[in-house]
Amino acid sequence: MARYPRVDKISNGKKTVNKGAWSAEEDRKLVAYIMRYGIWNGTHMAEPAGLARTGKSCRLRWMNYLRPNIKHVNITKEEEEIIINLHQVLGKRWATIASRLPGRTDNEIKNYWNTHLKKRCAQEKLEMPIACDVKVNSNPNNNLTHQNPSIAILHPTEATNLGSPRDIPVGLNRWHSRCNMMGEDANLWEQLHSLKDFSAIEDLESMCPNSGSLLPSSECMYSDGVYFRDSQDDFTIDLWGNWS
DNA sequence: AACGCAAACAACCGCACCAGG
DNA sequence: ACCTGGTGCGGTTGTTTGCGT
């Protein structure tokens, strides 16, 4: 969507920088410069490229629009599904989501989410019953497994319920210590990533296109502990990793 | 035809992180 | 250990377009 360029004076009055929409001429200059010299220094590329822009603006324009392999076509249904599924698992980590969609940028996905998908998903979520997000794959007869349970995400569309560290039924002793170390607001996904026995990461690729439930029979409740049920047994663990 | 409003989206802004000095 | 500059990321803004009245 076109925007008219505008020119802002920098505070000392000596230099002016263009803001707003990029003209075709500016695009041409930027592309020509990058093709010739590469992006060796994003901050200082504007001046040698002959552009009255900030380096940051140049970088953004390049990354979001001019870069080769950027798709300038509408997001497909398949891509939309992937975005929805990944958003439910990753949250607003647009750059990570974009990395799984070749030719799409974080900015594009963010905009698409905010304008097309946010309302729709909010509505669908209201209609969806609260269900279990994670499953402890443990054998109650195996003490080692008890101490170090591994987890698998059941269904991507439900993973957003993993809102707080209190919701995580995994290796709770370790979890507890990690929370102390990283702070309560530490990002869930990074923490899950950091758990060596978190087994769901590798499944992400396969489960995103077809968000099927892996283990539909299990359940859990969140309070000061977590209750699990699988095909073989019921058990609970509290926030300090005590099993019963 | 004119107006108002919402949607769409490019671009900007501020903050956090990281690497090098 | 601290400082500084560069980069990346997510949130927000500003402008155009499209549609309904």
Automatic annotation (TrEMBL):
InterPro entries: Homeodomain-like_sf (IPR009057), Myb_dom (IPR017930), Plant_SW-associated_TFs (IPR051953), SANT/Myb (IPR001005). Residues 14-66, 67-121 form the HTH myb-type domain. Keywords: DNA-binding, Nucleus, Repeat, Transcription, Transcription regulation. SUPFAM superfamilies: Homeodomain-like. Gene3D superfamilies: Homeodomain-like. Pfam families: Myb_DNA-binding (PF00249). Residues 14-66, 67-117 form the Myb-like domain. PROSITE patterns: HTH_MYB, MYB_LIKE. One of its GO terms (molecular function) is DNA binding. It is found in: Nucleus. It comes from the Eukaryota. Its main location: nucleus. GO terms for cellular component: nucleus. This is Uncharacterized protein. It comes from Eucalyptus globulus. The lineage of its organism: Eukaryota, Viridiplantae, Streptophyta, Embryophyta, Tracheophyta.
